[in-house]
Protein: Putative BTB domain transcription factor
Amino acid sequence: MARTSSRRAAQKAKEAISTTSETGGKASVGAKRKAPEQKAPAPKKEKKEEKSHQEEEVTIENKPEPKVEKPPEPELETKEKQPEQSEEKVEPDAEVDNVSAKSPKEGEEAPAAPTSTPQPGAQSERNVESGIRNSEEREDKVSSNVLEKGIVYFFFRPRVNVEDPEGVEDVARSFFVLRPMPLGAELGSGQGPVDKDARCRLLLLPKKKFPTSGKERDMGFVEKTNQSMKDLQENFVAGSTYQTSTRGERHVEEARPYAEGVYALTSTRRASHLAYVLTIPHEIGEIQENFGLHQRGSFIVQSKNPKYPGPSFARLPKEPEYPESVMEKFGDLRWLPLQPEFIEYPNAQFLMIGEAQDSLGKAATAEGGKKPHEIEPGEELERMEHENEDRIQALDGDSTIFLDLGLDAKKYTGVPTTWGAEETTA
Structure:
């Protein structure tokens, strides 16, 4: 009996020791995974078997390891790598990558389409010269005897201290400005005012009046070249005041525009022609007629060789500084049919001979030198007339001339057509 009782006591002691070791092991496992156990949908019962604890350990070990330890590292790596990839893509097309970077979905890459829309605009900008659209197709149709085309402005300046001239006798000088355009230029209602940076020539007629017949010949000269509209406004149009010892203060009136139109320089076998069509004012009046202008007309124009002196009444203190290439064209000839390059130099002199009034005369034809696909110079000039009229109508009517020249239209009551009317306001 003593042996059996001692054996039972020893066996019970072993069982007690084993049970305490098992409970201790379970507690240690639970202590290591407290955080993941909080995520479980329901608390576990204490009377679970060892198998259930082992399954929990497996699931816990499989889940938290990628979430807690490993994922943070690749997330940082991807964040660091993504900018590198985007930077590589930005080089060819920055706008496309910016749109795709902002959009959370891949399907939203469609906004990259706006980058394709500026391409036609960029092409149209490349076809714009000095603020005017240029068409290669249009240029190809222009007759080869058209040397130059563009917009022309006509000015007069009253005599000193004459604010309200009553006739040509009250005019000190008559000017006109040639604003050349590309041969393929196209005007229209969407054109807007003439570009202020456009390069212009300022030409002067000492006799003030344009010739109206073949018997009338007037000398003129180039006052300024390569002038922008702003240059003309500041250095030519603006008036000035000065003091004299005998008459006191003298005021030079500002130059006043009285007409605008389109022009073309054309060449025939023996001469060059300057043809024009007025588009402002809508109806010409006595002022335009007194200066020798009609709704349309043309002149024969010739350039003078500076090697030979001109008439005493038309001599200038300084000759034009022509390069050798131009002087070689003159040779020993006193006069040559005018070419655009001859009037690109200040003090260059030219002769105007009246040719046609209310028509374009010989300036409208190519005289057999036209290619089959080309149009006559007169047709091109009429097309320019209609285009400029559309542009003027879309802007401010006759007051468009002030917008073109960069002048304040509010200072003027309109383009003058009769003498004695106030033309500027305070």
